Amino acid sequence: MQPPDAGTVERWAWDYILATTLDHKLAPPSVPERWEDRPPVRRLTSPGRPPELRVVARAEKTRGLKAPLGRARALHTFFHHELQAAELMAWALLAFADAPREFRQGLLRIALDEVRHMRMYEREIVRLGHRVGEFPVRDWFWTRVPSCPDPASFVAVMGLGLESANLDHSAEFAARFRAAGDEEGARAQELVGLEELAHVRFGVRWFKHFTGGLDFDTWCRSLPAPLSPLLMRGDPMQRDARLRAGQTEAFLDELARFRPRESEP
To answer: Is the pLDDT of residue 262 over 70?
Structure first.
């Protein structure tokens, strides 16, 4: 696969995905202003990984959050989620080269937001007396999202799926960090949740653009197997936040009611 031209947005995305240093992942160079003319489709299959990050097949279970070690472990997981999200926004920018420029510009903005969230989580991990790389990570997003065949499927998984669920999870963990007496960690979770609103709103907008509306059944069909709506909601769901991000009452009612079909005997 031919790399993009040097000095282009596409090359920035390519280099970010394949970078193998933690410094590049946390503080990539400035994004060029030039976009490639008529870029080809480029679908990278895996990211570069800094040696500090030990990738494992199965994630460790999140233990209690009362001790700083437990909270640092949870934050390390969130850090890696943000890293994968940043990489996959860059991946989609390359994979859906024929999508509207405005859509790909939005992917770039979100990628930069995710990088900023990574730096915030790194500071929180260090504050708790730990460091990035101290805990293993799982590249779960990368085993699923690159199977998205088109932009509608991508925003179904990311904006309407994983990032929507993060509205729920960030509120849950903010409450748990606060209950543990960690107000700084709680505020970090709340800030991420607040900024995810724009990412979910982006997903809603472009899912409507690509499919003609926000229909629950269409969304379900857009999720590549084996992904399920069960993975795309927390308990409880933050309905007010999801509504502010553009999801509808009808969509949320169906998401709340969703149960997988029983297996055939």
So the answer is: no
85/219 Cα distance (integer angstroms)? 20
Whole-number Å distance between alpha carbons of 76 and 134: 8
For 206: left if phi > 0, alpha if psi spans -120 to 50, otherwise beta; the answer is: alpha
pTM of the model: 0.95
Q: pLDDT, tens digit, for every residue of 1-40?
A: 899 999 999 999 999 999 999 999 999 999 999 999 999 9
**Domains of the chain listed by start with CATH number:** 9-26+64-257 (1.20.1260.10)
Question: Which spans in 128-181 are helix H?
Answer: 151-157, 163-179
Tokens of 189: 């979770």
| pLDDT > 60? residue 265 | no
Cα separation of 210 and 150, whole Å?
9
* Mean per-residue pLDDT, 195-201: 97
Digit-coded pLDDT (tens) for 53-98: 999 988 666 678 999 999 999 999 999 999 999 999 999 999 999 9
Q: Three-state DSSP class for 212?
A: coil
Secondary structure, 3-state, 44-104 = CCCCCCCCCCCECCCCCCCCCCCCHHHHHHHHHHHHHHHHHHHHHHHHHHHHCCCCCHHHH
SS3 137: strand
Count of CB atoms within 10 A of residue 256's CB? 13
State the Cα–Cα distance between residues 160 and 156, nearest whole angstrom: 5
Single-letter residue type at 227:
L
Alpha-carbon gap, residue 129 to 182, rounded angstroms: 14
Distance of CA 87 to the CA centre of its chain: 9
